[in-house]
Every structure is written in structure tokens, then in C-alpha cells.
Amino acid sequence: METADACRRRPCEWRAEGGRERIFAFPSFLTAADFLPFVFLVTPGKRPAMCKSSKSSHGLPITTTVGVARVLPSGKVYRQIFDDEINLVHALGRARSKITQHKVLPGKIPLVRDLERRTSYGFLSERQEIWSEAMPNDQLTENPVQYKKAMTQAHAKAKESESVIAAREVRGLADVIVSDKRTSDIVERIYENKKLCYEEVVAQFKQELACVGKEIEECYAKQGKLLLVQLQESDQAFEAFFRISESDVTLISYTIEDFERMWALLFQETQQRRQWIRDLDEALHQCEVDRAEQITVVLSKYTKMLEDIAYLLTSDVHRFIHKEAMMINQAVLANRRAVSKLFLNLMEADLKRDSFYRLQLEERKEVWKVVQKKHIISSFREFVESERIQNPSAVKMELESMLEDQRSLAQKRNEHLFSLGSLLPLKHTKAEINEWYESLVELNKRIDTHNVQSMMRIRLQYEKVCQECLEKLQESKQNLIDMKICTPKEAEKIVNPSFYQLIGELQLQFEVKIEKMDADLEYLVKNTEINCRHLYQYFQDVLAIFDVHQQKLTQQDNELQKALNDCRCKHENMNKLREMNLDIAVDKLRMQSTDEKLKAYLEKVYAALDIIRNGYTAFHQDLLSKVIAYPRHVRHQLLCYSATISRYFYVLGSYKGKTLKKSGGSAEGSGEDREPTEETKEVEETEEAVEILLEKESEEELLLEEGDAEGPDSIEEEEREEMEASARRSGKIGIGGDDVERAGEGNLLGPKAQGPPSQTW
User: Fold this and answer.
1) How many CB atoms lie within 10 A of CB 358?
2) How far apart are CA 74 and CA 17, in angstroms?
3) Burial, 464: exposed, middle or buried (Cβ in 10 Å; 0-12, 13-18, 19+)?
4) d(CA 748, CA 86)
5) For the purposes of burial, counting CB atoms within 10 Å of the CB of 309, is it exposed (0-12), middle (13-18) or buried (19 or more)?
6) Smallest Cα–Cα separation from 756: which of 692, 682, 698, 697?
């Protein structure tokens, strides 16, 4: 007879009832010990039934699909158990192989398998077999090239770079280096003293040069101010004489002698101004000569002083003074060129002034002919630029009427927009939202139509103003001809370029205003339409988010109901088997005749009743664990909904909720300090495990939606590991019930209650 340890060590053979031989081996991730003492007993063509392994020689009752019980001979019990273990191992192996085929975890280090236990399958590992059996472009299979590249990059990153080594060596150096030998600093102090004296003398040298320049600048300013005063007095005298003829009305009484007398005065003033300019030029040249003499004295003085200090060599001192002298010579030459340029500019300005006044006197003769023309032109310009023409009152009235109508329509649209706040998802449907949007579009069309009609009326008022300006133009032309200021042809030349230009500018101004208003209204219509459409889409998106949240909550309710029904069905099936065993024990009790046998079978009946009681206890704990986990699942969905809403509305934080707290105690134990029972501790541990798992799932889902660096496969693997760990913790409840059941059963061989659903995660 093959034992469980032998099954784990090597493969074995088994011949089914149909005569077909099968060879199998336990996978490295599962052994026969994982399913002991709970295994399936399989009868060909019948449904498998649960049994419990034992070393007793009693027969093992087997239940078929029709509910008929039979007893196997004691010699075939272990063979049947072993065969059922084999079938279970194969079933689990096939299920897990399907999961690995549809899930590839890139970047993970493959598990090392013991090839000695897999000699019947060849020398390739499971990963290598998947690679060899996969198609070239199969996206469900891991790419070996990418796997090798990821491993190489991981090893390269683990190595220490040269920069890190260099930084460590630099950190090992001493912070302060102490000199071993000290010397005297007398040379340095002498050098510093001479340097200080040298800098002071150089500063004095520059200061004295600045004083010389300041004195010469005062001379320049004095001569310049004198010339400006003389020129200003000359200009005022001449302007006072010409100011009399500035009025266009007095020019009509002027004669030719008056213009000649004005010209003689202009010639006399021009000669006097030119003599003043020559005197200024001579004075400035003399100032430059004085400046050169003073600078020569300063250079000689400070050359001697620098040589006495001996901070620099004599050659270096002469080189320094020579350099300064070169710069001063350049400045002096520049000043002389500036004086010459000033003289030239003043003479040119005087010539231009003489020419200007001469032309002005010649033009004065013709000015009086133009006085009336200008008067007519200015009156027409004033008419065009008047407030009545630039801003017609009729246009203002149309604009005010347009604005009032716009305000009333905009108020209706705002009220309609604010009504959107009452359209909550639970009370209104998408049809009502569509109807609201159609009403909003209709209001926008009404506003657009009103704006178009108002702009047409405003355009007509502007055209009337332009027609009035044309009538005024014809009246001005007729006045020029009637006063005999010019001929009809000259009148046409005066009117056409100036009057029509003013009217054209006015008309262009009106057109620009109208076009700007049309463009603004058109932009407003388009912008309003886009905003309304975006608002409509925005509200639809929010409704869609809420619908998804409702679907998820409904799915949680359905999953809870399904889980409770599944637990109830499993418990009923297991309870039927236990009650059947109880009936068999009671029947055997009735058939006994001696007291010892009656007591022995009575103990077995009690044990069967204990098994039924423990089954109900385990069933209650299973239902309790699922119901306790439901509020946290709902909280998880609420957190996801909160995070989705926060991202949609661009909110930095999201609602985290409050941790679900346990009730203070039952009604019977309220007010009493009692020690928590083992069952209560197990329930609390299950609740804590489920709560931790749901919080981690919520955080991982939020990180995944925000673009976390980890891939979806790694997150799913972590979730699965957390769920398995939680299942192992919560499985303590079912294990405790099984221990009680085994303790009370003794040597009785009967069907075993299935573990809690948490073990099947």
C-alpha cells in the first residue's frame, strides 16, 4: 500500500476501473498531505463524496448520487483514498495551470524547481516548457528576451558605480590640513603697507584730475548760459514782433512794406546772433588750453610721488602715468572736436532759422487767401466731429433697448441654468436632462435672433447719419464758390481730398463698430453654445460615474447574497450526511442487547450530535464572517466613488471615510467585564484581517488609477497574496470546529464537513 510520504517523493501508477493506465506526479507546489485528512472518494460514473482517512479496520460508508449507502471492504479503503487524492491533485493542477497561462508576471525571478522530482517530464522547467510550447506572437506568454533583459538590468543596477566609490573616497579625506612649518610675515606686511600708500596716492591723483575737470566744466557752463540768455532774448524780441501777425484776421490789412520791414529786422538779428556764436567758440578754445596746462602740472607732481613710494618699479610708474596721459589726451582731443562740432551746429541752426523766417514771411502773403478756406474746412470738421454725429442719439436708444431685452432673456437663461441644480441623479432621468438641454438651446436661439434684429436697426441709424454728412458737404462747396475764394475746379480739389476723407473715416468708424459688435455677438453665441454643450456633457459624465457606483453597490449586494446562499446550501448538504450518520448510529443502538454495547453506541450517538452542533457553529461563524466583511466592501466602493469624483472635479483630496467600529457588546453582556472567549477572538481577528485587506485594496486601486509606477500584474499578485493570508487567518474558525469534530468522533468513520469558504480563496 502506497503511503502519503511515498506519493510526495516519487510518481506512482494507478489503473482505473475502465482498464486505462495513468501515470502522474504531485506538483512541486502541492502534496498529498495538503488534502489529508480530507479527500474525495470517486466511484466511476458517480459523484465524488467526502470522506475522512483513518487507520481503523472498519468499513467506510460511501454515498452515491441516489443516496444509497454501501460499505467497502477494509482492504480497499486506503486504495480508494489514495485514488481520490490523485484525482483531486490533478484537478487542482489543471486549474492552476490555466491561471498561469493567462497571467504572466514580467520582471519576476522564476521559482527554482527540483528537477530530480520531475524526471518524468524532462529536464526543462515549467517556465521553459511554456516558452517552448508558446506561439511566436502569443501575447499571453512571457517573452524570454525581455525576461533576460530585465534580469541583466537588475544585476547592473545592483552594482556600485564609479561615482559612488569616488564620493566615498572624498568623504574619507580630512576636513582641515594643518601646516607643519610657520614663517615670518614681515615681507607681507611691508608689501601691504606700500600697497596701501600706492592706492591712496592713485586715489588722490584721480580726485585732483576730477577737480580740474570740474573747474573747466564751470567755465563751459558759464559761457554756455551766457549764449543761451542772449539767444533767448533775441528770439523773444523777434517773436514779439511776429506775434502781431499770427492772427489770421489781422493779415488782411497787411501791405508789402510791412513784410519788407519785417525782413530787415530779421537780417539785423541774424548778424548779431552769429557774432555771439564766434565769441563762444573762442572762449571754449581758451578753456581747453587752460585744462591742458593744469593736467601737465598734476601728472608731473604725482609721477614724483609714485616713484618715492616705490611700490612699483620706475618703469612701471612711468608706464602707468603714460597710460593715464594717453587717455587724457584722447579726452582733450575729443573735447576740441566737440567744440568745433558745436560751433558748426550753431551756425547751421542759425542758417536754418534765417531760412525758416524768410519762407514764413513769403508764405504770409498767401495766408490771408487761405483763411476763409480753413474756416469752411474747420466748420465742416467740427460738424463731423460733433457729439451728435459721432454718437447719434437714435443709436443710443437702440442700444439701450437691445440691452434691456438681452438682460431679460439672459435672466430667463440663468434661471433655466440654475434649475440644473435640482436635477439630482436619484430623482431625474436622462430624458429630463435632454429636455432641459433642448430648452436651453431654444433660449440661446431666441437671444441670437434678437441680437441680429437689433444690429439691423443700428446699421440703418448709422446710414442716416452718413447721408446727413453728405448734405453738409455740398453746402460747404457752394459757399466757397459764392464768396469767390476759388474757382469751381479749385473748390472740387479742396472738397474731394478733405471732406470726403472725413466722411469716409466716419463711415469706416461706424462699420468698425458694427463689425466689432457682430464679431463679439458671434463669438458670444459660439462660446455660449460650447459652454452649454460642455455643461450638458459634464452633467452626463457625473451621472455616468454615479451609475457605475450604483452598479458596483448592486454587485456587492448580489455577491453577498450569493455567498450566503452558497454557504447555506453547503451546510444543508453536509448536515444531511451528518444526520444520515446519526440515523445509522441510532439504528445500531436499537439493535444492541447488552449494556456495554448500548453505552458504546450511545457515546457514538452523542459524538454524532456534537458533530452536528459543531457544524452549525462553523456555519454560523462562516455566515458571520461574510456579513461582517460586507460593510467594509461597501466602504471600499464608497472610497473608490469618492476618489473618482475628486479626480473628475480636480480636487486634491478625497473623502477617506471613518473606520467601521465594532459594537460595544451584546445585550446579555452589557455592563459586565467578561473575558473574551476564543470564538470572539477569532471573529475579531477575521474582521481585522478583512478590514486591512480592503484598505490595501482601496489604496492600490487609487494608486493604479493615478498612474502609479507599478504594473497591474504586480498589484494583482499582491492582492492575491493578501487575500490568501487573510483566508489563512480567517480559516482558524473552521479549523477549530473540525478539531472538536475529530475529538468527538473517535473511531467513527463518516463524512467530513467542508471547511469555510475563506479557504477556497
Assistant:
1) 14
2) 19
3) exposed
4) 24
5) middle
6) 682
Cα–Cα distance for residue pair 411/213, rounded to 1 Å: 77
What is the amino acid identity at position 106?
P
Question: How many other C-beta atoms can be found within 10 angstroms of the C-beta atom of residue 438?
Answer: 10
Q: Report the distance separating Cα 761 and Cα 689, nearest Å.
A: 14
Provide the whole-model pTM.
0.36
Q: How many residues does the chain have?
A: 761
Please state, in angstroms and as integers, the Cα–Cα distance from residue 198 to each residue in 189, 191, 316, following that order.
14, 10, 13
* Alpha-carbon span 89 to 153, nearest angstrom: 38
The dihedral over CA atoms of 299, 300, 303, 307, expressed in degrees to the nearest 10, equals -170
- pLDDT tens digits, one per residue of 283-328: 888 888 888 888 889 888 888 888 888 888 888 889 888 998 899 8
The CA distance from 585 to 615, in Å, is: 18
- Tens digits of residue pLDDT in 154-191: 877 777 677 777 777 677 666 665 544 455 678 788 88
Q: Which amino acid is at 674?
A: R
**Is 579 in contact with 67 (CB distance < 8 Å)?**
no
In 44-198, which ranges are E strands?
49-52, 61-63, 69-71
CB burial readout 1-19, b (16+ within 10 A) else e:
eeebeebeeeeeeeeeeee
Helix (H, G, I), strand (E, B) or coil at 687: helix
Q: CA separation (Å) from 540 to 444, 526, 537, 553?
A: 20, 21, 5, 20
| 351 to 233, 265, 274, 337, 449: CA distances (angstroms) | 18, 15, 9, 21, 69
Quick one: how far is CA 175 from the chain centroid?
45
Question: For the segment 595-642, what is each residue's pLDDT rounded down to a tens digit?
Answer: 888 888 888 888 888 888 888 888 888 888 888 888 888 888 888 878
From CA 338, how far away is CA 331, in angstroms rounded? 10
